[in-house]
Design a protein that fits this description.
The chain contains 8 helices and 13 strands. It has about 300 residues and is of the alpha/beta class. It has a domain of about 200 residues: Alpha-Beta Complex (2-enoyl-CoA Hydratase, Chain A, domain 1), CATH 3.90.226.10. The protein starts with 9 loop residues before the first helix and ends with a helix.
């Protein structure tokens, strides 16, 4: 086979190289300018903020007839900045509040309550999230399982909290071995923050939620939906599943703010969306108030009754 060879003129090669170089330079320049403009805009916003604060500070120190508590002033400025973010997940803590927050390892003996109902159905109510909630939940499941219970109503209405460690063992019981909870940050980076390695008990669940179910408890409801091991009953949850960071500032005060979304097994972001129930059942305001006070009987609780029916 004869191979044909053609001589390419040197001028064409040089022109091609120049064009390729010009394109690479243009792309690099565009990216650099975009980053530059972002930095300039950010710096301009910071300059405007500091300029306004400086203007107020100058007027006060020149003409204000009262006293200025420097420590209180700085604390309120920081608190005002965080409150301006309009997020319940952002908090500024004074040094005393930060110390209390970091040392808060309390347990709650009333965190989990359970009982055996008729037809071999168990009822577990999680009242609060504490460092012993997971262990108490597992103990309750084992006790019910030992009594022959294979269907459980899990009531997490009104439950809120941000500490993922407190619900990990609950997640184990509602998920398959190997299922995980992931986080997604503002750049779209994904990270596994918890992965179950437990063998769940053969139990069918009905999880009751309401509009006050908020934070990591929402992941319990989503795990039930994603795994197919039960149904979610009640109202759409609040939609505030974020992964928070707690940092100490230079003066000993602290800052809590969300750095990522915690997402479902199917990588759905629940923030501002919540978990939709499989069976929507709404309590009227009077019954909801009775429930909050712990005075709503099972017979009057239509969400509870729907959960029982779903396990039939």
């Amino acid at each position: 086979m004869k191979i044909l060879r053609k001589n390419v003129p040197g001028g064409v090669v040089i022109a091609f190289v120049c064009i390729a170089g010009a394109m690479a330079y243009s792309l690099g320049y565009m990216m650099a300018m975009r980053k530059f403009n972002d930095v300039v805009a950010y710096n301009q916003e910071r300059a405007n903020m500091y300029s306004k604060l400086s203007e107020i500070d100058k007027m006060i120190r020149q003409e204000y007839i009262g006293n200025v508590d420097e420590k209180e002033l700085m604390s309120d400025i920081c608190d005002g900045y965080v409150r301006g973010l309009e997020s319940d997940s952002c908090k500024y803590l004074t040094s005393d509040e930060y110390k209390e927050c970091m040392s808060d390892k309390t347990s709650d003996e009333n965190s989990v309550k359970y009982e055996v109902l008729g037809d071999n159905i168990g009822y577990i109510k999680i009242n609060s999230l504490a460092n012993n909630t997971g262990d108490m939940f597992v103990d309750a499941l084992r006790a019910l399982f030992g009594e022959g219970v294979r269907k459980v109503i899990l009531d997490i209405r009104g439950l809120d909290g941000t500490n993922l460690e407190y619900i990990e063992k609950c997640f184990d019981s509602l998920s398959r071995n190997g299922d995980s909870i992931k986080s997604i940050d503002k750049k779209g980076n994904k990270e596994i923050v918890y992965k179950t390695d437990a063998d769940r008990m053969d139990i069918k669940f009905a999880v009751i939620v309401d509009s006050d179910t908020e934070g990591v408890p929402e992941l319990i409801a989503s795990a039930c939906k994603d795994s197919g091991f039960g149904r979610v009953i009640g109202e759409k949850t609040k939609g505030n599943t974020v992964y928070e960071k707690t940092s100490e500032l230079s003066d000993g005060s602290g800052l809590i703010f969300p750095i990522a979304h915690l997402v479902t097994q199917k990588e759905q972001i629940l923030t501002n969306k919540g978990v939709l129930p499989d069976d929507e059942v709404i309590l009227d305001s009077d019954k909801k108030e009775l429930f909050r006070r712990g005075e709503l009987s099972h017979d009057e609780d239509i969400q509870f009754q729907k959960a029982v029916d779903s396990l039939a």
